[in-house]
Amino acid sequence: MSDSPSPTQAPNRIRSNRNSDGSPGSAPGRSDYATTSTPNPQDAEVLARAQAGDHQAFAQLYALHKRRIYSLCLRMVGNIAEAEDLTQEAFLQLHRKIATFRGDSAFSTWLHRLAINVVLMQLRKKGLSLISLDEAMEPTPEEGPSRSFGAPDLTLTGAIDRLALERAVADLPAGYRLIFILHDVEGFEHNEIASMLECSIGNSKSQLHKARLKLREALRAQRRQEERS
Predict the structure, then answer these.
(1) Which residues are CB-neighbours of 199 under 8 A, at least 6 positions away?
(2) pLDDT band (50, 70, 90) for residue 16
């Protein structure tokens, strides 16, 4: 995958918009949120041909979506070679299962679900513990009962050191990291994430909230360490 992005090519923003083909769009402001766009008829026609066994159409789908799938894999495993292997495996899974896509969700959402399953299987093979989505709903002392989930976190979306944020995200437990990447980096909405992970919207919001709490604390700790040095 010679055109895969370098791991140092981190986003200059936390949230990204998406074009109709699922590719990253223009940089938004702090309050911008990704929205579900009307499917492009040309994209739908390419998908239909790929489902019918057209190899050229499948190659077009690969070209449209490979960078985002690779980006997700790389951010989850932190290793270029492993991310490339996982991306290839995700598209092998797509090749096997594309005929089963029925359009109940956006194609990009469905494809990300395939890729996430590949990544999570790899993490389990490596023996990494994954925070369960049910566990994410358990209250913690610092939250209190009236905490609201899912609002934009200006502490994290402000002008902070990008490399420090990358390190903090990489140190998150895999379950928290996945939700944060899907929502705050890739720009998926909670209903889309819930569809990908087969969980409730409330669980997705809770997991994101806890990921942000951990990130804020990690960034504060990094700043304190820098001030002492």
Answers:
(1) 133, 193
(2) very low
Task: Give the model confidence (pLDDT) of 37-68 as tens digits.
Answer: 445 677 889 999 999 999 999 999 999 999 99
Q: Among 150, 159, 153, which Cα is nearest to 215's?
A: 153
Residue appearing with tokens 């009962």? 145
The candidate with the shortest Cα–Cα distance to 150, out of 71, 33, 17, 36, is 33
Give the contacts of 71 (CB within 8 A, at least 6 positions apart): 5, 186
Residue type, 31: S
Residues of the chain with CATH 1.10.1740.10: 41-125
Q: How far is CA 157 from the centre of its chain?
A: 16
Is CATH 3.90.1150.10 what the domain over 41-125 is classified as, yes or no?
no
Q: Could you report the per-residue pLDDT of 117-139, keeping only the tens digit for each?
A: 999 898 888 775 554 444 444 44
Q: Which ranges in the chain are annotated with CATH 1.10.10.10?
A: 135-228
The pTM is what?
0.68
Percent of the chain with pLDDT over 90: 46
Alpha carbons 20 and 16: distance in angstroms, whole number: 13
Check whether 27 has a pLDDT greater than 80: no
With b for 16 or more beta-carbon neighbours within 10 A and e for fewer, the 109-131 pattern comes to: bbbbbbbbebbbebbeeeeeeeb
The DSSP secondary-structure symbol of 182 reads I
CATH number assigned to the domain covering 135-228: 1.10.10.10
DSSP state of 26: S
